[in-house]
Amino acid sequence: MTFSNLVRLTALVLLLFPLSTPAGAETREVLLAAYSVPKEAYEKRIIPAFIHHWKQRTGETIQFRSSFAASGAQARAIVEGLDADIAALSLESDLQQLVQAGLVAHDWKQGPQQGIITTSVVALGVRKGNPKSIQGWEDLTRPGVEVLYPSPKTSGGAMWDIVAIYGAGLQLGARKGLTEPASRDYAADLINRIQRNVKVMDKSGRESVTTFERGVGDVIVTYENELLPRIAQGRPYELVYPPETVVVENPIALVDRHADRHQVRDIAETFIAFLHGPEAQQAFAEFGFRPTNAAIATSTAAAFAHPPHIFTIASLGGWDHVFAALFSPRGAWTRAVEARDR
């Protein structure tokens, strides 16, 4: 038999009878793609705990890779080819991009807490002693007050920030006796007046906090959980809770197409269930996130502030309505940015 014929015969044998990998020889790997803010909670506590949990339950050693970025940028990366098996994003509309792309095929809202893994509220971070006497949203419009929040074009957290301002404006307008559409105009004007004082719009909520820590700005609009751990560590900041603010809801979902192709659906589904359980929810709480597990939420309630006029995205008409009102080409935030740039 010639050498060339031997090569062809070997190739045929391998095609018909491929070499098998011994069971357990390859370590399965899961990729978690998440928005930037909960990085420490996942990497320091939750992922190591789950890997240990899985090993004890199944005897299998697994690996996790994690990617953290601004929520909107992360959603686009997954749509454009990032092979994430699990997406933990900042807001529902980012996760819906994966649904529309056919990557998330199941009804992710059918899970525990309708797919919401943690909550938070939008609050105001100020320097120690609150030198500019910031108490509420109107104070962010005063001359000489420098404001930070990230860009809603890339950051889900920034969208929540703008939603908080808008919803607060609706409530403040109503308390002044305004009715629709005057109260809506008041809310849009509040966004416009605050935007005039915005010093920097970073790409993500985490980058915005880093800018604040460098000494830029008098007040940062951010999730409370970005500053609670820092304040606990003795950093020279304070949290101010405006009376009117929004509940931030952070969704999570298995990315069906990728998890199935990577043959890790069982791990990914169990990980998401683990995140809703007491151990992970307690860890989230310790990193400043409000847990959605009822028992842990009750036991940690005293650790969190409870502003009197809190509202939800549903109370504002849902994300489709809010996105059109704020971030569409004629939305209130879009027009505020255009007016400032002129």
Commentary on this structure:
The chain is an alpha/beta fold. The protein folds into two domains: about 25-120 and about 250-300, Periplasmic binding protein-like II (D-Maltodextrin-Binding Protein, domain 2), CATH 3.40.190.10; about 120-250 and about 305-340, Periplasmic binding protein-like II (D-Maltodextrin-Binding Protein, domain 2, 3-Layer(aba) Sandwich), CATH 3.40.190. About 45% of the residues lie in helices and about 15% in strands. The protein has 14 helices and eleven strands. It has helices at about 5-15, 40-60, 70-80, 90-100, 155-175, 180-195, 205-215, 225-230, 255-260, 265-275, 280-285, 295-300, 320-325, 330-340; strands spanning about 30-35, 65-70, 85-90, 115-125, 145-150, 200, 220-225, 235-240, 245-255, 290, 310. Strands 1, 2, 3, 4, 5, 6, 7, 8, 9, 10 and 11 form an eleven-stranded mixed β-sheet that branches. Helix 2 links the parallel strand 1 and strand 2 (about 65-70). About 40% of the residues are buried. It is found in: Periplasm. Keywords: Periplasm, Signal, Transport. InterPro entries: Thiosulph/SO4-bd (IPR005669).
SSE layout and pairing:
Layout: H1 3-16, E1 29-35, H2 39-58, E2 63-69, H3 71-79, E3 86-88, H4 92-100, E4 116-127, E5 147-148, H5 156-175, H6 182-195, E6 198-200, H7 205-213, E7 219-223, H8 224-232, E8 237-240, E9 244-254, H9 256-261, H10 265-276, H11 278-286, E10 290-291, H12 294-300, E11 309-311, H13 319-326, H14 332-341
Parallel strand pairs: 1-2, 1-3, 5-6, 5-7, 9-11
Antiparallel strand pairs: 3-9, 4-7, 4-8, 4-9, 4-10
Helix pairs in contact: 2-11, 3-4, 5-6, 6-14, 11-12
InterPro entries: Thiosulph/SO4-bd
Pfam families: SBP_bac_11
Subcellular location: Periplasm
